[in-house]
Amino acid sequence: MVKKIKIIAMLTISIGIFVLTNCTAKKDTSSKEQPIETVNVINRELVKESKDGNCSLKIFYPQIEGLPNVAVEKKINAELINKFISKDHVYDIENCDPEARYKIEITYSTKLNKNNILSIMIKHYMVTPGGGSTLLEGFTVGVKNGELYKYEDLFKPDTNYILKINKIVWGYIEEDEPGFKTRMNTTKYEFYITENELVILPSVSPKMAGEVPINLSKITDIINPEGPLNSLMKR
């Protein structure tokens, strides 16, 4: 009888250990496989002004926090600072010509923050006595590995994506200025992406910046299967 009790007790303990081990293993595996849906984006601000007040610079720039990989987080934040804060800008403000008068403001808006992708539009606005000018730029990064996506990363290299995108840009923007199509016949553009669109940011003229939205369903034949656009198509 004593032997039976001991055997039953040992079996019970063994089963308990097996169940606990399996439960723990399953929990760890599932947590590692979960994607980073979004990241925390924190707004920062830099303000500079010349001593005479004639020149000023205001930059609103993003930083991210909360990534499980601290090294990747630091890399992305360093890239963001490098993209937004030009040492030339700061130097120019602090050493502004007494006869100069201008105001520079750099802002941003988050266009996509999901599927391991962060995509931002950056707006540079400069005002001088002669008027104002706007420049739009994009910043798209993979938050899982810190990879900065370039324009050519979006498309299959063996397709005629350059001509296809150029034709879409030409058809979207009405511009009578001589040489417009020649100027816009480019191999790469600034861009940002949203859940459903690739948005091209062509510099239409020195005083006008444009946005050309392209629905992803219209360019499925040229999308790089290894690039960020394809991950959005899989949703």
How would you characterize this protein structure?
By secondary structure, this protein is an alpha+beta fold. The protein folds into two domains: 34-148, Heat Shock Protein 90; 150-235, Actin, Chain A, domain 4 (Alpha-Beta Complex), CATH 3.90.640. It contains six helices and ten strands, in the order αββααβββααβββββα. The strands form three sheets. A five-stranded mixed sheet has the order 1-2-3-4-5. A three-stranded antiparallel sheet has the order 6-7-10, covered by helices on one side. Strand 3 (102-114) and strand 4 form a beta hairpin. The termini are far apart. Residues 1-33 have low confidence and may be disordered.
Task: Give a brief rundown of this model.
The chain has 235 residues and is α+β, with helices and mostly antiparallel strands. The protein has helices at 2-33, 70-84, 87-94, 161-172, 180-184, 228-233, and strands at residues 40-49, 55-65, 102-114, 117-128, 131-142, 190-193, 197-201, 203-205, 208-209, 212-215. It has a five-stranded mixed sheet with strand order 1-2-3-4-5.
Strand order of the largest sheet: 1-2-3-4-5
Number of helical segments with 4 or more residues: 6
> What's the architecture of the largest domain in CATH terms?
2-Layer Sandwich
**Regions with pLDDT < 50 over 5+ consecutive residues?**
1-33
The CATH topology name of the largest domain reads Heat Shock Protein 90
Question: What's the CATH C level of the largest domain?
Answer: Alpha Beta
Structural class: alpha+beta
